[in-house]
């Protein structure tokens, strides 16, 4: 099996359920206390487990929605009233979310839970774990989990409270975004020497020196957004620490798509840091891996047996504004999309039999109940045919087939379990190369003979795309779209490239205050020291 250490971590799910609450502003109570637990090596590992369980938490549903549906990458319309969810997805698309938005609240709570859980685990292990290399590394890894949560919190919410002490229940005010940046930079650099430089199954899913460098690189690349000061040279230096390590390499075109399949794992040479998912564990529901299950009442476990293809569910679809960047016919990354007329592997058209009214609910002919068979044809446009106000495309075959679908995180067709095994990469080697290219293009000095053009072309060549002759920021932006679709970086990219206020789909809102989300009302009620973000 692939995730030996993570198997131990996943066994700590029960321990994670012992904690009643981990909101930054609410006391954490647990039966897991320094005087009763832990006392031996196995228990020390288990004591760190809840932090990793919390990290897996909401990342593939609410976090994915927040980072993706707020951009031109995806749209999640209603279908005959289904999936309207109180305008949840409509507001993300239109940039009309409020401090009571459920997805915004869910993300604040999730990230706060990670931070609170890490604080608790650190408190216990610092007290009970004997001094030595194992303790030093374990504590450093936990602090990196917390740093990752704080990075996402800073990126999403801007000004957030900094709390690192378990049992501190006082009301903490927001720290300025630049202060959070400095806190993170200081903490990451402090723990970096204590992290492992081993990259194999024993460290898979655990923070290493290279996660620390990748996170620093991402912070430095966005430093002008976060602090007002560009840090391109520092970004290049952090990327070089990953590149020069020799621990990673680009997957060739033949295995690119396999990086996201249910059997991905530590064998993937590009994974700098990934969050493991296990279909047998709780809360292993990566939303992207279940978007494409058959909606024609055929259980997913029957798909392989009866050659039933993955057909479009009431799923997240992309927008033409995003898909237009997939413009090289030979690029392997095109194959992560479900588009156009659908065929079985043997070339037989995939057909569905319904009625004329079932195919088009607005059919006005005299024979609406007449059977009608059509070949599935997934179309690029998403049109709110039924009702614009309720964000509704209708509830017929035409509606179900609207919008190209990203199937990068392909589900396991043999599993009846809604949970999936697709591990979710957070940082990949390709990101280190493209971050370095962008930092050079933004004014940083090239190193090791690599130019922005050569770095971008190294990625393109690995994906069977034609090499570019010149490169600029727009070309790098497009390359990031092609490389990291459905990997939750597009909102971060759009803001850095000054495109988040553009128009796309049905969105026309150009309010710059939407670059960060509001502090949820529930958090404001719990912590009166918090100050709401501007514009909310």
Automatic annotation (TrEMBL):
The keyword Protein transport does not apply. It is found in: Cell outer membrane. GO terms for cellular component: cell outer membrane. Keywords: Cell outer membrane, Membrane, Signal. Residues 398-536 form the RagB/SusD domain. Residues 87-221 form the SusD-like N-terminal domain. Residues 1-22 form the signal peptide. Its main location: membrane. Pfam families: SusD-like_3, SusD_RagB. The keyword Nucleus does not apply. Belongs to the SusD family. This is RagB/SusD family nutrient uptake outer membrane protein. It comes from Dyadobacter frigoris.
């Amino acid at each position: 099996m692939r995730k030996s250490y993570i198997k131990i971590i996943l066994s700590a799910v029960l321990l994670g359920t012992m904690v009643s609450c981990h909101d930054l502003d609410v006391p954490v109570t647990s039966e897991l206390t320094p005087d009763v637990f832990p006392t031996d090596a196995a228990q020390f590992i288990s004591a760190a487990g809840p932090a990793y369980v919390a990290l897996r938490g909401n990342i593939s549903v609410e976090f994915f929605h927040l980072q993706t549906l707020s951009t031109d990458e995806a749209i999640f319309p209603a279908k005959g009233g289904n999936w309207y969810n109180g305008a949840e997805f409509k507001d993300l698309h239109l940039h009309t979310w409020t401090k009571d938005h459920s997805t915004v609240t869910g993300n604040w709570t999730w990230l706060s839970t990670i931070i609170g859980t890490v604080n608790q685990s650190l408190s216990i292990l610092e007290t009970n774990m004997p001094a030595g290399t194992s303790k030093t590394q374990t504590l450093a890894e936990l602090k990196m989990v917390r740093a990752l949560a704080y990075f996402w919190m800073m990126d999403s919410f801007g000004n957030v409270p900094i709390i690192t002490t378990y049992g501190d229940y006082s009301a903490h005010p927001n720290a300025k975004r630049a202060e959070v940046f400095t806190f993170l930079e200081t903490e990451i650099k402090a723990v970096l020497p204590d992290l492992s430089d081993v990259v194999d199954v024993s460290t898979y899913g655990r923070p290493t020196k290279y996660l620390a460098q990748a996170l620093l690189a991402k912070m430095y690349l966005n430093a002008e957004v976060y602090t007002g000061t560009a840090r391109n040279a520092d970004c290049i230096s952090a990327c070089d620490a990953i590149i020069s390590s020799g621990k990673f390499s680009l997957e060739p075109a033949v295995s690119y798509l396999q990086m996201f399949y249910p059997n991905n794992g530590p064998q993937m040479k590009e994974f700098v840091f990934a969050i493991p998912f296990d279909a047998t564990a709780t809360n292993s529901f990566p939303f992207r891996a279940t978007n494409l299950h058959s909606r024609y009442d055929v259980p997913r476990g029957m798909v392989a047996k009866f050659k039933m293809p993955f057909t479009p569910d009431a799923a997240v679809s992309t927008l033409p504004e995003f898909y237009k960047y997939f413009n090289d016919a030979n690029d392997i990354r095109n194959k992560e999309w479900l588009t156009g007329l659908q065929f079985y592997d043997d070339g037989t058209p995939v057909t569905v039999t319904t009625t004329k009214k079932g195919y088009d609910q607005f059919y006005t002919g005299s024979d609406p109940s007449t059977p009608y068979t059509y070949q599935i044809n997934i179309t690029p446009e998403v049109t709110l045919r039924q009702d614009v106000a309720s964000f509704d495309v209708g509830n017929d075959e035409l509606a179900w087939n609207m919008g190209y679908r990203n199937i990068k995180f392909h589900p396991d067709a043999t599993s009846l379990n809604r949970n999936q095994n697709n591990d979710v990469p957070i940082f990949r080697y390709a990101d280190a190369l493209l971050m370095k290219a962008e930092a050079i293009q933004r004014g940083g000095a090239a190193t090791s003979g690599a130019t922005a053009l050569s770095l971008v072309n190294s990625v393109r060549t690995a994906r069977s795309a034609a090499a570019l002759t010149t490169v600029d920021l727009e070309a790098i932006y497009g390359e990031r779209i092609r490389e990291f679709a459905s990997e939750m970086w597009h909102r971060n990219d759009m803001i850095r490239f000054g495109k988040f206020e553009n128009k796309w789909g049905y969105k026309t809102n150009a309010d710059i205050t939407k670059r960060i989300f509001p502090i949820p009302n529930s958090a404001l009620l719990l912590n009166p020291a918090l100050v709401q973000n501007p514009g909310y």
